[in-house]
Amino acid sequence: MNGMKSFINSEIELEISGKTMLSGVLIDVGLDILVIFDGTRYLYIPLLHVHQMKERALKEIESEPPETFLLFNETEPISYRKTLNHAKGQFIELFVTGNRSIHGYITSVLNDYLVFYSPVYKTIFISMQHLKWFTPYSHQLTPYTLGNKDLPIVPASIPLARSFEEQLKKYEGQLVVLDLGDNPEKIGLLKNVSNNMIELIIANGQAVIWKFGHLKTVHLP
Fold first, then answer.
1. Can you say whether residue 122 is alpha, beta or left, with left for phi > 0 and alpha for psi between -120 and 50 degrees?
2. Kindly report the CA angle at 83 between 61 and 7, in degrees rounded to 5?
3. What residue spans of 10-136 are helical by DSSP H?
4. Number of H helices, E strands in the chain
5. What is the 3-state secondary structure (H, E, C) of 62-77?
6. Residue 50: predicted pLDDT
7. Closest alpha carbon to 161 in 125, 131, 132
């Protein structure tokens, strides 16, 4: 981490999981997360997904980072969990799979997953291990300019288990969508969750087994 801190206030390039390239001014490095400013917004990136960092040869960012979009500004080192907790109730965009993003609000942060409310997908359970990065928006903005009556920011009404796997077991016997339905075989009846495996019965009645450790998101259709 000390090596990364030497890049603070420098314009950098990052390669993160999925061979995704990001760039911006390095604002802060915490215990397990870093923050960059890409010229228009702050990106919070868990160090778990950082593969490479280097200083940019050609500088492109001229605008000053606005303090209003920072989730918090403390003297203590920032951390992934602390940052997620500070983001609760604020409109954010996050990336978990491919180049698809989700807009909405974090409502709860548990041991290894978070509960996210999206106007499109409603309540989504997201593995903290697979969250690539997220960015907060201005407090004045709401997703799709929806009003408060169309965008209830409320915690999930169902009881929440401490672990992602235990939470998923609550949906055995119900239709679920895994990883935002990026594959037709990730939509089906949740038959069983055990031994780090998920058994789905897909539309044609076939049983498909998925390894739990690769699961990024779950929501009900």
1. left
2. 40
3. 80-87
4. 3, 15
5. CCCCCHHHCCCCCCCC
6. 94
7. 125
Mean pLDDT for all residues in the chain: 87
Residue pLDDT, tens place only, 146-198: 666 566 555 557 789 999 999 999 999 999 999 999 899 999 999 999 999 99
Q: Which residues have CB under 8 Å from 131's CB, separation 6+?
A: 46, 94, 95, 96, 114
Q: What is the helix (H) or strand (E) element at residue 144, kind and residue range?
A: none
User: Would you state the pLDDT for residue 199?
Assistant: 97
pLDDT band at 51 (very low <50, low <70, confident <90, very high): very high
Average pLDDT over residues 45-68: 84
**Cut 0.90: pTM above it:** no
Residues 6+ away with beta carbon under 8 Å from 124: 102, 104, 115, 116, 117, 118, 217, 218, 219
What one-character DSSP code corresponds to residue 212? G
Rg value, the chain, Cα = 18
Map out the domains of the chain with their CATH numbers: 2-58 (2.30.30.100), 81-150 (2.30.30.100), 164-219 (2.30.30)
| Dihedral sign of CA atoms 28, 43, 14, 97 in order | positive
Neighbours of 86 (CB within 10 A): 18
